[in-house]
């Protein structure tokens, strides 16, 4: 089974944060394939550049290291994903989350996120 990580889920997972629910942690550590969207990588890069997010090491070393260490596959953004975004109702206004929702819908992926607003789109959210 493949699951898509919300940006905060990825960050909490790699930093062993207590904010990650125990059921989410158990799921991520089980025999599933973890996917991380290019949108999440972009969001992290923006937050780092704005000093809204501090990483233990610089972005260009830390993030690829964590992706490799945790055997995470990168989900690229396709035109089909963007087409779904263009048709989504505005239950959620964050552009990164809207893209993750579209990817989850397009690829029929469960998404691991604390954000209950995702539920309004009918995606399968785990937390």
Describe this entry's structure for a reader.
The protein is of the alpha/beta class and 127 residues long. It has helices at residues 7-14, 22-28, 38-49, 59-69, 79-87, 95-107, and strands at 2-5, 33-37, 72-75, 110-112, 125-126. A 5-stranded parallel beta sheet has the order 3-2-1-4-5, with helices on both faces. Helix 5 (79-87) packs across helix 6 (95-107). The protein starts with a strand and ends with a strand.
Class by SSE composition: alpha/beta
Overall number of strands: 5
Order of helices and strands: EHHEHHEHHEE
Classify the helix fraction into a percent range.
40-55%
Radius of gyration: 14 Å
Mean pLDDT: 96
- State the assembly state of the protein chains: single chain
Could you tell me how far the N terminus lies from the C terminus, measured between alpha carbons in angstroms?
Answer: 16 Å
Largest sheet: 5 strands, parallel
Output the keywords.
single chain, 127 residues, alpha/beta, 5-stranded parallel β-sheet, 6 helices, 47% helix, globular
State the gist of this model.
The chain is 47% helix and 14% strand.
Question: How are the SSEs placed, and which strands pair?
Answer:
Layout: E1 2-5, H1 7-14, H2 22-28, E2 33-37, H3 38-49, H4 59-69, E3 72-75, H5 79-87, H6 95-107, E4 110-112, E5 125-126
Parallel strand pairs: 1-2, 1-4, 2-3, 4-5
Helix pairs in contact: 5-6
């Amino acid at each position: 089974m493949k699951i898509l990580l919300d940006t905060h889920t990825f960050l909490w997972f790699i930093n062993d944060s207590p904010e990650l629910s125990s059921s989410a942690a158990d799921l991520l550590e089980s025999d599933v394939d973890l996917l991380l969207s290019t949108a999440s990588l972009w969001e992290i890069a923006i937050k780092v550049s704005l000093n809204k997010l501090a990483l233990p090491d610089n972005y260009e070393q830390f993030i690829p290291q964590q992706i490799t260490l945790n055997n995470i596959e990168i989900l690229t953004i396709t035109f089909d994903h963007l087409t779904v975004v263009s048709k989504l109702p505005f239950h959620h206004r964050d552009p990164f989350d809207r893209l993750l929702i579209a990817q989850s819908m397009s690829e029929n992926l469960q998404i691991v996120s604390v954000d209950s607003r995702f539920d309004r789109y009918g995606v399968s959210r785990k937390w």
